[in-house]
User: What shape does this take?
Amino acid sequence: MLAADVIVDLQYGDCGKGKVAHFLCKTKKYTHVLRYNGGANAGHTIFHNGKKFVTHQIPAGVFFGIKSVVGSGCVLDPEQFFAELKMLEEGGVDTKNKIFVATNTHIITDAHKAEDREVGGKIGTTGRGNGPAYREKYGRTGKRATEVEALKPYLLDLYQEWYGGKSVKVLAEGAQGFGLDIDWGDYPYVTSSHCTTAGALLNGLPPSSINHVWGVAKVYETYVGSKKFQPEGEIFNKIADIGEEYGATTGRRRQTNWMNMQTLERAIRLNGVTHIVFNKVDVLRTVGAWAVYDQDKKVEFKTEKAFKDFVSKRLKKLGILPKNVFFSESKDRI
Assistant: This one.
């Protein structure tokens, strides 16, 4: 039997996917956790046993001894990969025989990183080499993990792993967000990979294997990059300050805005979301303001309850049951 749950960011990344992945690994029984897209340009902040970890490429399953795989939909920076292994080991996380790389995963080289730092500023990339690595992958001139000697002890054939006769239950952990997807995001201000549920399927998982899709969002929106995203108004700086909105990978300050209901609904439909987690409710509570954009108009709410009722009612129309809608706070480590 092959079954899978998928985690997908419904906004522009930085919504707390790592926290949700950590919670699901702790409470569900998975045989594998698969990172299905992106590279070292993503950062998941995870609190485990009282310690803070920022992972960039290695899936959250390792914190619970679950086989963790960097999938074929990713691009891998070996230098960052081994630095991350060292960081986890030094933090008391046993990585031995727990972390693997798909044989057909493509490699980020020093040349890719140098190029990205030089030209990526136009759209605000992290400069980690993702774009050039994906370009060479699709140009059929890329380098795969099998060509890196140091990675050979970590290599794994995804086909054999998924279809080798054993019962497999996968948690597919995404990076970046729907608004940054190469096809469905705000092009050209996007990343270079598929940040959707369909992106998980590109790692050898059949559509019939998907059970649940966990969508993750904030109760407001944030964006890191070169386009203008944040409206005028001191309240948005206040949201960023209280929410500590700085990128886990680059440390860059995130622009903020109210949540857009049409963008959210589009992401839910295209990803087939069955469960949704809204993070950082406490930030707007502290700010003392509740609002969304709906049909290009700002809708304000006098209370937190009115905000939650409005959002939940809209989600119910999309087929997401109230019991599958969760509002979480920054302090919640779930």
Q: What stands out?
A: The chain has one domain: 2-327. The mean pLDDT is 93. The first strand starts at residue 2 and ends at 9.
